[in-house]
Amino acid sequence: MNEDFLRRAIQLAAVARESGNPPFGSLLVGPGGEVLAEEHNTSVTDADITAHPELKLARWAARELDPATAAGTTMYTSCQPCGMCAGAIARSGLGRVVFALSTEQLLTLKPGGDFPVVPQDGPALFDEARIPVEGYYR
Length: 138
Hints:
The protein is of the alpha+beta class.
């Protein structure tokens, strides 16, 4: 773990807050220790609920890095990634995430706590739903 990279993520979180966005920042460090990309939250200023820095970096990595390089990267982030971002990080093939503030710690600082859980129903219509999917992953 490199505390300087974590401190940079925290600085990026401050930039996000100063610009009117939620205070989160992240950077992606390559296998050789070089900073490949940096992002901060822009969900308010972009009017985009998905504009989290972790998600933006995961998307960038999936587009710009070959799988071996992506697997050798470390994302340093000011706060533990949310479920949306964690899913994108996993799919992008990034190698590791190091965070400064855990979700549990964040919730002690956030009035109202976490987002509500949205009810989900399913599965349903398996025989119909499988048709476009079957064979795709082979």
